[in-house]
Write a structure and sequence with these properties.
Blueprint (H helix, E strand, L loop, with lengths): L2 H30 L8 E11 L5 E13 L4 E5 L2 E4 L8 E4 L2 E6 L3 E13 L6 E12 L4 E12 L2 E11 L4 E12 L4
Antiparallel strand pairs: 1-2, 2-3, 2-4, 3-6, 4-5, 5-7, 6-7, 7-8, 8-9, 9-10, 10-11
Length: 187
């Protein structure tokens, strides 16, 4: 074998080894792909009830579908409905949305999005319904906040404003900004 043949064999052997290593690394990247997190558990037609320390009904939640992710300590809901009871209240508030997520870090906070509606179950409540795009529910303190536009319908009035703070224990609702309203006199 002459030098030229030997050089060609060494050149192509080196090229083949380098090509093979590159292909091996690219194959590993494709095989791994993006890591898709899978839920730790799921539920369909969820019904859950929570009680306070005295044994009184505190809240209920239902959802069409639920997925819990332990690594993020987050629960995702499809069409959630929360029933919140204030302290000493027999008449709950029903809060529904298209989507929701529950984050349990230091407090229990539920974030509800898309077509959020708060409805009074008791017909004697002055506020009958509140609708907005998204809300944050603090389930420990039983408060609700949003910075979105809010529309309120009540017995003899309608109101709207930007941003809201509601306290279910004190039975108070406050619109934060750009408030307008229409009131009807009792007939």
């Amino acid at each position: 074998m002459n030098r030229v043949t030997l050089a060609i064999i060494v050149f192509f052997s080196t090229a083949f080894v380098l090509y093979w290593q590159v292909q091996q690394k690219q194959g590993d990247k494709i095989a791994q792909g993006p890591q898709i997190e899978r839920p730790d558990y799921m539920a369909t037609d969820l019904n859950s009830v929570a009680y306070d320390e005295q044994g009184n009904l505190s809240s209920k939640v239902t959802a069409k579908h639920m997925e819990h992710y332990a690594t993020r300590d987050t629960t995702l809901f499809t069409e959630p409905v929360y029933w919140l009871y204030g302290e000493g209240s027999d008449s709950p508030w029903r809060i529904s949305a298209k989507e929701g997520r529950l984050k349990k870090d230091d407090t229990q906070k539920a974030y509800l999005d898309w077509d959020v509606t708060l409805e009074a179950i008791g017909k004697k409540e002055p506020i009958q319904s509140v609708s907005t795009r998204h809300v944050e529910l603090d389930l420990d303190n039983k408060t609700m906040t949003t910075d979105a536009m809010v529309y309120i319908k009540g017995n003899g009035f309608q109101s709207q404003g930007k941003g809201l703070f509601a306290d279910f224990n004190n039975e108070t609702v406050r619109l934060n900004d750009q408030v307008t309203g229409t009131y009807e006199a009792n007939k």
